[in-house]
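Researcher: I'm comparing several assemblies side by side, and this is the next one on my list. It has 667 residues spread over two chains. Same procedure as the others: predict the full complex and return the structure.
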Amino acid sequence: MLLEVENLVTRFYTSEGVVHAVNGVSYNIDHGETLAIVGESGCGKSVSVRSIMRLIPQPPGKIESGRVMFKGRDLLGLNDEQIRKVRGNEIAMIFQDPMTSLNPVLTIERQITEALEQHWKMSGAAATQRAAELLEMVSIPNARARLKDYPYQFSGGMRQRAMVAMALACEPDLLIADEPTTALDVTIQSQIVNLVRRLQQQTNMAIIWITHDLGVVARLAQRVMVMYAGYVIEAAPVKELYGNPRHPYTLGLLGSLPRLDAPPNTRLFSIPGQPPDQVALPEGCPFAPRCHMVIERCLHEMPPEEPVSEHHHVACWRKDDVGNGGPRVRQS
Amino acid sequence: MSGNHKPKVLLSVQNLKKYFPIRQGMVIRRHVGDVKAVDDVSFDIYEGETLGLVGESGCGKTTVGRTLLRLYEPTGGKVFFDGQDITRLSPSEMRAARRKMQMIFQDPYASLNPRMTVGNIISEPMLYHRIVSRADRDERVRELLEMVGLRAYFAKRYPHEFSGGQRQRIGIARSLALEPSFIVCDEPISALDVSIQAQIVNLLEELQDTLGLTYLFIAHDLSMVRHISDRIAVMYLGKIVELTDRNELYDNPLHPYTKALLSAVPIPDPVIEEQREIIELEGDVPSPSNPPKGCNFNTRCPLAQPHCFEAEPPLVEVSPGHHVACHLVEPTETA
C-alpha cells in the first residue's frame, strides 16, 4: 500500500470555538489507483488530505491524532525539513484556482524549474529542457516559447495544465488534486480530466481527487469516499457506490442530481436542511437532523464505519434498511 | 407546454447587441475596439415557460440577461415585453416596467445588503413602487418569506446570519415582492452545494406552477438546465448557435459545439461513463474583442470546412422549432 491514513483527527481552534474539521478519518490508496473524495463545502474533504502533507496552518489548525504511513514512514512524525522533501517530490498537489496558486511575478519556466532544483538538483539548460518537455506533455502548444510567459498570459485551462506540469515535474508517486476543475468550463474540465488520466497511465501514480461533482467522480475514479461533517460516511468502489448506495446521505446526493439521461419532469429529490455547524456538532450522527430514516439511536450514538461487503463500508445504523438498487427519485 | 393553441410570446428579443468599448490612452480615451459580448441575438420567450440559456464563461449569457432588463443599455436591437419595446422607454417608464421583470443573482453573498434586515431587503422594492403601505408591509414580508420556505421571524435578522441556500431564498423572496411575471435567474444555483441546489430548483419550479411565472434561466450546468427548462438556447462567443426544445437538444443536438458541450458533461453513473465516447474540443474560446472571421466556432470545430472561415452562418430553423447556426447542418425536408 502506498499511503495508509489511520484515524486522522484535525481541529481548528478559532475565536468562535473549536472547529471539528476531521473526526477520525481512515483511508488508503495504492500505486496507479484513483480515489475520489466527495462531499459538500466544509465537510473536511480538503483538510483530511491537506493534513497528510501537513499543509494545515498551525495555529489555528492542529492535527490531533492519527497516523499517515507513506511508503513505510509516518509523515506526521517527520520534521519540517524532511516533510519538505516529500512535498512536491513524492507527493504533489494541484489546486482549485490556478490563478491564485501560481506566482504572478515569476515565469512559468521558473515555477516549474524551482521544484527540479529543489528536489533533483537540476539547473540551467537541463532544467529548462525538462520544463519544456513537461509543458509539451500537458499539451501546451509551442511549449518552449511559452515557458517565458507569465501566468496572466495563459488562459484558465492553460494555467491548470501548467499546474499539472509543475506537479508532475519530479514524477510524484501520489498526486493530490483538490477540486482542480471546479473553476473551469465543462469543455476545459473534460480536457484536464482526460489529460490527468492519460498521464496516470504513463506514470502509474496514485491520485486522490477531491471534488463535489459526482459526474467527474463517475468519469475518473475507481474508489469513492463520501464525507459529511468531518466523517467518512460511506466508501466503496465507484460502481458499487453509484449502483448500491447504502447511506441515506449518499442516496440523497445521487437523487438530488438531475441526469442527462433521466426522464424529464421528475422533481429532484432534495435533502432538507443544511450541513451542521462544525463548531457545535450534534451528538450522535451529524446527518441525523436531515435524515429521512432517522431513529432514536442516531441522535445519541455515532455509528461506526462497518463493512456491508468486502470493499464497501458504511457508517449508518440503518445501512441494512437503505434500499438496494440505486437511488429512488420522487416523481412529480 | 400542453395543448395545441399557440402560446403567447411574453418577451421577444430582436437582433440584440451589446458591445463594451475598449478605450486606450490616459487622457484622450480613444475608442480602439469593442468587446462584442452579445452580437445580434434574437429569441422569443413564451408565457409560462422556462427558457434555458447555456454557454461557457464569457459567452455573453449574463450580458443577455442584464441587457434585456436594461441593466445594461443595449448597443442595438429591440426587446419587446408584453408587446412594448422597452428599449425606447424613458427612465421613469422603465422603472415602472421593471415591476414586471425581476432578477435573481448568482452570488447570494454579494447581492444582499449586509446592513439591512431581511425584512427591509424584501420590502424595499414594494415601498419604492408604493404597492404596499407601511402598515401592511410586515404582513406581506411574512407571506413572501413563507412562500420561499423561510420562517416569518427571519425578517428581523441580517443576511450574515444565513447560509448560502437561505440567502438565495431571500433573494427570490425579494424578486417576488413586486409580483413580476418574468424573472431572469442568473446562475442562481452555481454558488450552492449540491444538496442545496436541488432545494432551490424545486422551489423555483413550485413558484412557477403557483404564480405562473416565466423564467430565463441562465446557467453553465447543462444537466440542471435540462431539468428546469422547456426550451434551451446555447450561446457561443456572443451568438446563439442552437435553440430548440429541451428534449430535442439532448436527443438530437445538431451544432458541433452543442454536441461537444453535451459530451463534456460527465454523467453521474460510472457504468455509462465507461462506455461513452467523449468529443474533446481543442483550445479555448477566442477573445470576444477579436472574434474569428466567418463562423465563430471555426477555431475549435472538428468539422470546419473552408466555407466556415469565410461566411458567418445564420440561425435558421432546420426542423420545426429547431434553430441552428451552422453551415454543415442541412434543413430537413419537413421544415
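Model: For your comparison table: Chain A touches chain B through 47 residues (CB under 8 Å).
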